[in-house]
Amino acid sequence: MDDDKGEPGLLEDSDGEADLSDDKSSKGENYNLSAINPQYKETWRTSSFQHSTKTCLALMREALLHHRWQEAAEYMACYTQRLEEPKHGPVVQDKELIWRIGTEILHHHPNSKMEDYNNIYERMKDSGFTNYLMISLEHSFHLLQNGHIKDAKHQLSVAESWRHGKKSAAQYKMTELILVYKGLLDYVMWCDKKSTLNRAEYPDRLDNQDMNNLFRAASVHLKEILKKPGVWDPFILSYVEMLEYYDDHEEVIRVLKDYAYDNKFPPNPNAHVYLYRYLERRNASQEKLMKVLKVLCALVPSHELMLEYSRLLLKSDQITNIHKALGIVLEMLDFASWRSSLDAWNLLKAIIKKLKSQSNWKDSVAEKMAARKDWWPALHFTRFHASKDSEELKEVKASLTKVLCPGLMLQYTAGQTTTEEGTGKKTSKRKRMSSISQL
Amino acid sequence: MKNFFMDHCQDAFGFMGEILSENLNQLPRKRYSRKSVYGVKSAFDMMKIKMCPRSSCFKSLDAYGALLYDVVPTVPTELLGSLLHEELIEQRDRALFSEGATGGALTFVPFPQCGSEPQSGCLLYPGNPGLDRLNFHKVELQHSRGGSSCLDGSSSDPFSLQLKGPVRQISCASLFNDCCVAVRSDHLCGVWRFSEQDLPRLLQVVNTREIATCVSASPHILGEVLVASESGAMDLWSVGKGMQKVRHEDSNLYFNAKSLWRWGEFSAHPRVMVYADRTGVELTDIRESPVSSHTLFRISNTSECRSGERLVLSTYLGDVHAFQHLVTTQSSAYIIDERFPCISMLKWDHMMKSPPMFCHVLCDSASSGSAVGGDRATKVLLGSQKSQEITLLQFLGGRANATSSRGPPRALLRPRDSLKHLPVQIPHRLELTTSRLSAPAAGLTCIQMRGPRGGDECICILQLTEAGDIFCQKLESDLMEASSPPAAEDEPAQTAAPISWGGAVHQQPLPDTVLVVSEMLSDEDVTGPAQGPTVQRSKAKTLEGEQDVHSDSSHDSEPRQRGRSNAYSGLTVMVNDEPELDRESGLDTVDKDMGRDNAEEAGGRVSTILGGSECRPLPKLSNDALVTWKHWLQKLVKRNRKGPPPRRCRQHQAVPIKDFLPSGSVARDPTEEPQVQSLRRDLRACMAKRALLLHGAVSTPLQAPAMVAVPAAVEREASLDDISQRLTVSWQGKEAWIAWWREQLGLNREDKVKALKRKRRREKDLRRAAGRHVDLSGSFTSSASNKSDLSDFSDTSGWSSSLSQTAWSENQERLSQADGFQEGGTPRATTPTALPSTQTRTPVAMSTTTLGDQQTTTNAFVPTQTLRRESTPANQRRLKRPADDYLRVLFAPQDEALQHNGYFHEGESAPHNSTPQLPHQAPSSALRNHWLDLSQEAALSHSPFVSQSSRGGPGSSQLKKKSRMGF
Q: What is the pTM of this model?
């Protein structure tokens, strides 16, 4: 891997210049103007240089897209000269380009080493302050991915304390991310501690000072970020886990409810799922569970917890709830993912069985099925379905056809495979002749 | 413009040339020289124009074109210029990106099967050069690891249908073994149904009034199809039952992207549709009667959208994940879960040069065995049109785990790249094949195939180009890589031993005879063994081994998922390009002979080519690939030699023009006669003096129709008086003009108060108008000929201020906006802001005279304007001026309006005459104000004529389309 080693060397040379041109580009212009060289020659030289860098970039792009990493690395070694270009010095985009492409190559190059990574990350960090935070974050990701959690955390700490003038909006956002990931890393280390602790003698699980420190450090950052609107699923999970460990259940409920019900946050079905799961763990009352599930049902009517919801509704034995359960299960069956689910069909069967105790059950079913009358037969009860569904499912479905679609001749009957084609098809047959003439 | 005249001289000058040709032919030869243009003109001025509809002298037409390009256009230059500009813009857009092809016209429908091999299915593709023949071709993918693989279409003939228009998109949905195919061409959408046993049969065809932009077959219910068209509507078409309107949007969803493109897809729920345009995607629930919808994806709202990004394609990934949608833009691809709208699960920069319009998604089941957590990797293939790129993106998760991308995007081989790996050709053939191979792509599909063992998998990617070729390349997953244990601690670099793929030569097990596939497409030669070029070329190119490592692109990759990075199985890429089924339609007559030739020559020449290829180090080609290639090439070359592709210029038909333009109609018009005569005199006098012709006498014959139209219109107009008066006065200078206006204001107020008097005055006007219009035209000629007068009037401040006075006076009671106009410093009030405000005004009954005024303004000014225009190009040395004029014509909409008022006034004047009868004139007044804005702007840009005349166009906003119709 000569190229990769040559690369940092080039970077080393260019770094100072890059900084110079960043800050004092006007000065550079002056040098050029006062130079004895005729200007046209200069422009010719720079333009040809630009031309060749452009070509190099294009070739590198090709190599990258075709995953020819070695070739790309060779181009990259040359391309870093772009940083040295005197006149139109490297702009931020160029540096970012080199950084991104360089790390991408290293990710995939068979001979890349951790030192190379560290090298390029460190050097790119120093090349200018606009991307510093981003590079730090990615650096720590990379370390994290390779299991160097401590190093990763160190990187984040360095980035956290980094200050450079006023923060732009993007930098502010990045700082937030750095903090929250720092919190997450604390949590990871906390988890490691916990697992080692459990194997050890186990005196008092809340007494471990290291863990407590980590928890405190993590919770500071996590708490902060969870106040801001966004999707923080992994973070909230880790925070909740830590809080549960320390039996701070009020806080857990508060955090989860905020996450689920706060209108500033984007409607996140996961938030409701987390809340439900937690309540379930805490053996909360059925009303509470149903309340959570009701909101979830409005968000994602196809969620697997809806089975649970309709079971709960069914258990409550109120007639309105049974109707509601019917609606929920029917809607679930609308969705592609539940169409051949035996559970769902069985549940529907159970609901209808329960409904039959009512006098006007047929009306209520018909009411729910009114909107579906046109397309449910085609969706569920064709002969293709009959031929593909498992025996068990077929039985359940066949028993429900009469209830759900009364008055329709359906081909979906258990055991029967060959029937004539559907009515819709017949009409289309009739139209066929006319439509052919249209074409 | 000049280029247009040169290239399309027949279009531009055909009629006039034809009209003139006989006369010209009789002229002495020397008069054709460039100097004597005016001589020619005067010559045919003197001989009254006679029609000779049958005479055609195309040879000399070119000469006329060059000679007379700015004097005798068939279509007036201003109009032509604007139309040409529109057309050019449209063509440029189309060349860059033709959205019609979105979705792709190539589909493979796999048949359900018990065994794993060979994978068979039906390939649907359009044939013929116009892509207007739909083919259903049963093919088999034969593949065995480490060697042969081919797409065998020889087992059966394709079932093909001739359609009326080019196939733009094929959408397919299959339920078990029955398959429903929706095909979209520009104005027709058809649905076919077929299965493995049954031949395709047409179920229904619908005709869309606007161009259809999308057709999408429902994956839930067989026989339901979504059709979206440029009208902004999306319809749910239940085949055999009829259409149901799902959604109609006149404008774009989130901001004005100026795009008519609409797209529709199904979603996880059969009654919730995806409605997309360039600005975003919405989920539309049609279960409720006022259709409810919520945002799924929105440009500029979804994270890290760049400005200028536009949605290109939205695909429902139903086969892979019930709730996921893929949305692509020019620069990125997003995976979006419809349960969690507006937030992208995953985002790639796909790094393609042109926007991805085709997409195929498949679920990678083979590598799932080794993947940690049993998550399946999904492969997304994106194809772009112009640059033929195919990019492979892979991602994991979406169910139990978070979605994460796997590896960077990988570009696959493009057809135009494949030439490098083929034997060297002689230059002209090379050129031929290059141009053929680099035709824009028109479709993309993929055949997935599982080997006998679970991990042995290959995907065969088919790409259709607009030339009708289908190229095929194959990706194989790497077994060694896949089976390597996912040792979590190891660095990826260590497991990634470079793997050599030297042996990966693909052979095609077909004997030559099999290649001779009779193709029913070649229409007439059904009897003979008409060998369609249904030959297969497989070109194996081995790329160096690769190791893809799961990159850390996903921010929430938790440490315990680390191990997955190693579980990724690299893909070995072996590329087979086969322009299988190259159905060139130019072939029909040649096919039979060629078939024999190919069969005979095949044996002889393969060896030589092979010898060549063996010398080449890297791209190793198999025999069969080369054979296929050779056949294809031969066909191509032969076809080309036989007849060079017909030149683009259309066959021009000589249409008898007698009926359109009755001979002598111009001359016979009694009112015109003295004018024409005087103009001729002028012309002759000018020529005698060798002076520059400054006014429009040059184009008098051309203008004859217009001149006829204008006086007629004026005569019919009752209220000529005011405006003509004003104009006449305006020639005398600003003071006189303003004085006139003061007078007029008083009248106006009086008018409003006493509506009764108006009628009487109109009658008076009528009487006065009868005698007026001759004076009017006289004033035009005199003043237009005097350029210095014009320059006096280009004192813009006076014009704009007086204009604002106009506005003010007309809208006295409604002061809301007039103040802004009066300022004169804010003439840039843009139309969108101006329009609503004017519309909110209380529509006071406008005096009929005001409207009439505007009408006549337009009419009266047409001659002036054209005169000036014509006089400018006549001055040949000042070439820049006409160009400027054209530019102004192109970019100032009021000019266009002016033209169409001028030229199509006949048709429009009638409705406007009737409008004053209505009590409320809100729309027209709003429009007028709108035009006032524009005119004010124009006034600042030193074109008083334009501004003045255009301000009176209440009907001019009945938009450009009209003028096009007229054209």
A: 0.62
